[in-house]
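debug: dumping io for the single-chain case to check the tokenizer round-trip. Nothing else runs in this session.
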Amino acid sequence: MSATEIQSPRSGQIGGKPESGKIAPKYRRNGSSRGNFEMLAWLFMRLSGVVLVVLIFGHLIVNLLVGEGIHAIDFGFVAGKWADPFWQFWDLAMLWLAMLHGTNGVRTIINDYAEKDSTRFWLKMVLYAASAVIIILGTLVIFTFNPCPVVDGVQLPGGFCPA
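debug: decoded output
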């Protein structure tokens, strides 16, 4: 290699002499599944991002532009919306995709910036635990929501619940 020739960024010197056109051993891919996981995570980010745009703009249009707009949003509005299984699954898809999309993005940031393996491990464990709790609680709220609860045989008051 001459003084003016620039070495390929991922080529290395094998055995003390430069190997032009060859990839250094530390940059070679092995047969592990980590590369496949990262490729699938990258693909998930792109696809979930497109689906989230549709879900979020649909959510905003229905909640803010249709009917009385923002002035109609109250407990009764949400109760009426979640009485329909279509809107339950719409909001569930939005919750799950947003949480998984965000978790995957933060996981990537942790992998990029956490230097110690132990720090990286614990940050990701906290991230996964928090995401799981939010997904589970959000799913429970969407499917167990009762706008007219009955406690000890007495229906709790609400302006929209039948007496």
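debug: round-trip ok. The chain has one domain: 32-147.
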